[in-house]
Write a structure and sequence with these properties.
It is built from 17 helices and eleven strands. With about 475 residues, the protein is α/β, with parallel strands linked by helices. A hairpin with a 2-residue loop joins strand 6 and strand 7. Helix 1 runs antiparallel to helix 2, helix 2 runs antiparallel to helix 3 and helix 10 packs antiparallel against helix 13.
Amino acid sequence: MTLKAWIMTACSPAWFALHLYIAAEWIGKVRYDQTLFGLYYLAIVISHLITFESSRKPRSSSYGNNLWIDAIGRANKDIVIQSLLLFTIIFVTKDRGISRIFLGQYLVSIWPLLILLHRWLPDALSRVLFSKDQCFRTIVIGSHKSVSEMRSFLGGLPASGFQISGLVTLRDADRDTGVPEPEHSLEVLGSVDELDSILRNHPTDQIIILDSERDRLWFRSVLDPCTRHGCHVLIYNYWQDLFDQPVHFAMHGTHTFFSLQDEPLQNPVNRLIKRLLDLAVALPIVLFILPPLILTVAFFQRRQAPGPLFYRQPRTGLDKRSFQILKFRSMYAADPDRSSEAVQAKPGDNRVFPFGAIIRRRSLDEFPQFINVLRGEMSVVGPRPHLIEHDEAFRKTVASYRIRHFVKPGITGLAQVNGFRGQVPDGAAIRNRIRYDIKYINSWSIWLDMDIIIRTVSEVVFPSKNAY
C-alpha cells in the first residue's frame, strides 16, 4: 500500500470515531454498551483495502476538472463499499445500539472529505516528501508523438518526486517546421545526437526512453553518455502496445523472457487462498440459503411450468475440461433440443415462464452453481462459462479466448460487474468480456475477489438493464 492509502485508511475510522462520540455524548443516537464498535472499524478498514487494491491506476494527468472527476469517482467507490459492509453488519448482527440514521449521516459527511483527500493528498504528500532539492531530475527521450501519447504517465511523475527537465528528440527532423505542433508542454532540449552536451548543461538523475530507433548501435549511443554522467535509465516497454495487453518478465535460469500472461493463480498458495474463500462463501449459501430457495422455486415451477427443478448443461472449465453446470430451470420444460439451447435469451423471451423471469433478473437461477463450487468445478469469482457452441464461435472472434480456461470459471466475474453480462449481441461485446477476463487472470488477488463479490451483491439487489 502507498502512504496515501495508509493515511486514508486511518482517516475514515478516525472520522467514524468522532461521529460516534458526538452521536453518543451529545445527540444520544448511539449506545456504547450495545454497539459492536470493533466490527464497524474493521469493516471501514477492509473497505479501503479493497478500494485501493482494485483501483491501482494512476490519476489522470490533465489538470483541473479531470482530477476532480477522478477524485469523485474514487470517493463514490469508497462510499459504496463502506455502505455495503456497514449495513451488512447491522443486518447480520441485529445491532440495536447504533442508529441507521447515524450511519447515513456518517457516510454523507465523509463523502466530501474523501473527495478532498483523493484530490489533494497526493499533491500535498509530494510537496512534503519531495522538495526541489530532493526531486529526481529527469529527461525524456522520444518523439513528440510518443510524449503526447504518454502525457498521462508523464503528468503523474511530479507527484512521485520526478522533475522533468525537458525532451530530447530522436533526431533534428523532429524540430522541422513541417512537424505538427506537439500536444505537450515539455521544453525541447535538443536531439539525441547532442545528448552528451545536454547532460553536461542539465544535471540529470534519470533518463526515460519512450521511443527509440530500436537497434543496438542507437542504444549504445544513448546509454554511453548516460553511463558517463551517472544517470539511471528507464526504457519504455513497447511490446505491450504490439500485443494490446501487458507483457511480463519471466526468468528461466540465466535467461530473461517476455510472457504475455502474469498468472498469480499458478502459485499453489494463491490457489489455496482462493479455494478457502470459495468454501467460506459457498458453504453457508448451500446450507442456509439454497434450501428455502429450492422450496420457493419448486413451488412456482409446479404451478407455472412443471418439470425438473434444475437445468443441467455441459460447459468448459479449467484446462478446457467439461463439467455439468447447475441452474434453476427458468424456462418451460421441453424435449431436449441442442439446437435451441444455443439461442441466447432475449428480453420478453416466450420460453421463460413468469417466475423464471424474476429469478433470472435477480440472478437467483445461478445459485445452484454454489454446488459446482463445492465440487471444485467452479469458483465464486472467475470468467463466466459459456455454452460449448458459443466457445467455438467466440474463439474464432477473439484469438485469446482460450486464455479464460487458465482458471476455474466463476459464478460472477470482473466482466459481469463492469456491465458485460447477459446476451452477447456482437463481436465488440465478447471482446470486452475477454479483455476483462484476461485482466482478472493477470491481476488476481484475494482483495479483487472480495471487491467483485461485494459489487455482485449490489448487482443482485439493484439489477442492471442487461439482466433478463
